[in-house]
Each structure stands twice: as C-alpha cells, then as structure tokens.
Amino acid sequence: MNESEISQYITETFEGVDVMIASGDSFFFYNPDGNVPPDHRFMFATIVTSDINDQFSDLNRPSVFRLNIGISKQTFRSLFGERALPSDKNSTPKSDDTSSSDYDFTALNQVMPHPVYGRMYWTCILNPSDEMFKTTVQTLLAEAYNMAVSKYRRLAARS
C-alpha cells in the first residue's frame, strides 16, 4: 500500500479523524467535532516520508515511507517483549552500538518498535504490503484509534 491509500483508509474507516500535513508527513488525530483545541487532540498514527526527525529508517530512499502507530503497552509487549531501543533520536544506529536494538529499522514490510518512540509504545512499519496491512496493520490502527477516543472521552468527562 502507498501513503495515499493508507491515509484514505484511516480517514474513511474511523470517524472524527483530522489529518495535519507538515513537510510531507501526515499526522492523524481524533477530533470528533472538528473544534477540539490542538492541546486536547490525541494523535494515534503518522506517516513519515523523510529523515528530517530521525535517520533510523533511511526514508530518503525512493518511495519509502514509515507508518507509525501508537498502541497499548500490552499489545506492544506481546509483539516485541522488552528489547532495548535506541535512545538518541538524532543518532544513527551503528553495528557496534550496544544501545541499539536487534531491529533493522530500514527493513520494509516488518512491524517493529518505533526507533525513537518505541519507549512510548509506538510501533512502525515501512511500506506495508497489502497482505500485512489487512492481517496486522488494520488491527493496530483500530486499537490506536480506540485508545485516542478513550483518552478524549476521559478528558472531556473531566471538563
């Protein structure tokens, strides 16, 4: 799947989604009535197309993008356990760097922890295939969206 197809899937499948586009990257927020102040919106997925914010995935390759999805701690741990992840968002992992993980963050069509935000239970996948999208990514997106809705409702109930 490409970025446009994924963006279309997210906006057509989930209600109340706002998309902000900056520098070619897409940020998906739950914003049910379109009037939620920016500091109360809950981002649940992003599509990143360049290495501006980190260089782990080598997104400067032609047609390569990374889909990032914020999932629950339980789902994250069921997928990845508690492996160490790189901690410096501005560094590039090196083969002799003992702080880097066992993941090849440049690999296509592989669900893995986000190289920077994995510690916050974000996952990523570069260029998911149609099959991977249907069998795995759709489920992760649904969980992330439902978490954003729950956070919004909890915050709204306190207001």
Number of helices: 3
Biggest β-sheet: strands ordered side by side in the sheet: 1-2-3-4-6-5
Number of strands: 6
Look up the CATH topology. Answer: Aspartate Aminotransferase, domain 1
Low-confidence stretches: 88-100
Mean pLDDT, all residues: 88
Radius of gyration: 16 Å
**Strand composition percent:** 15-25%
Number of domains: 1
Biggest sheet, open or closed, and with what strands and sense? 6 strands, antiparallel
Protein name: DUF6194 domain-containing protein
Domain DUF6194: 1-154
InterPro entries: DUF6194
Organism: Reticulibacter mediterranei
Descriptive notes:
It is a single chain. The protein has one domain: Aspartate Aminotransferase, domain 1. About 8% of the residues have low confidence. The protein contains 3 helices and 6 strands; from the N terminus they run αββββαββα. It is of the alpha+beta class. The protein has a 6-stranded antiparallel sheet. The chain is globular and about 45 Å long. The N and C termini lie far apart (40 Å).
Helix and strand topology:
Blueprint lengths: L2 H11 L3 E6 L2 E6 L11 E7 L17 E5 L2 H8 L31 E2 L8 E5 L3 H29 L1
Antiparallel strand pairs: 1-2, 2-3, 3-4, 4-6, 5-6
